[in-house]
């Protein structure tokens, strides 16, 4: 175990060093809630208009499907997730909600902040203690005016209840 942990730490340090040299930007949002959900959404900005997203959550309830989005505003100092605005959508893709369809293989009609749609599926809880629910996918984002940094990630349960939120910050 000691060797594995050192190897993992070395890999993270190498990735961070590589990011510094190649111009990659690493962003992260760490979400927790009173029910025991604990997770990280990581964004690796590869280049303008290309960001890799990875999810690592523990404590998701077995069988529950969770939707997750980038919202317009950061979480305020008091931690009120309801003050983060709505799903980040600078190009108004979600304006016509009745006809909105976001699919993994067709990301152009997607709102920029629709991470669930861009992943192609909600995050599903496996309900095993200490086991991470992990997913990874690519999204299109822009490093200029439309970047994710400084916004927030929100997590909703299957009933549409806001469960957790966190600010997206430099890792």
TrEMBL record:
<keyword id="KW-0732">Signal</keyword>
<dbReference type="InterPro" id="IPR053257">
    <property type="entry name" value="Cu-only_SOD"/>
</dbReference>
<dbReference type="InterPro" id="IPR036423">
    <property type="entry name" value="SOD-like_Cu/Zn_dom_sf"/>
</dbReference>
<protein>
    <submittedName>
        <fullName>Superoxide dismutase</fullName>
    </submittedName>
</protein>
<feature type="signal peptide">
    <location>
        <begin position="1"/>
        <end position="23"/>
    </location>
</feature>
<dbReference type="GO" id="GO:0006801">
    <property type="term" value="P:superoxide metabolic process"/>
</dbReference>
<dbReference type="GO" id="GO:0046872">
    <property type="term" value="F:metal ion binding"/>
</dbReference>
């Amino acid at each position: 175990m000691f060797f594995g942990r050192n190897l993992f730490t070395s890999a993270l340090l190498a990735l961070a060093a590589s990011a510094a040299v190649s111009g990659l930007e690493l962003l992260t949002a760490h979400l927790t809630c009173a029910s025991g959900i604990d997770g990280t959404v990581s964004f690796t900005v590869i280049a303008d208009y290309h960001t890799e997203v990875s999810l690592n959550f523990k404590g998701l309830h077995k069988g529950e499907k969770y939707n997750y989005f980038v919202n317009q505003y950061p979480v305020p100092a008091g931690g009120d997730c309801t003050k983060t605005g709505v799903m980040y959508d600078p190009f108004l893709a979600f304006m016509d909600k009745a006809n909105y369809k976001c699919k993994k293989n067709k990301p152009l009609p997607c709102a920029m902040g629709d991470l669930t749609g861009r992943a192609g599926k909600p995050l599903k809880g496996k309900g095993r203690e200490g086991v991470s629910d992990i997913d990874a996918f690519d999204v299109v984002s822009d490093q200029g005016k439309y970047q994710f940094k400084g916004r927030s990630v929100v997590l909703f349960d299957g009933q549409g209840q806001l469960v957790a939120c966190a600010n997206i910050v430099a890792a």
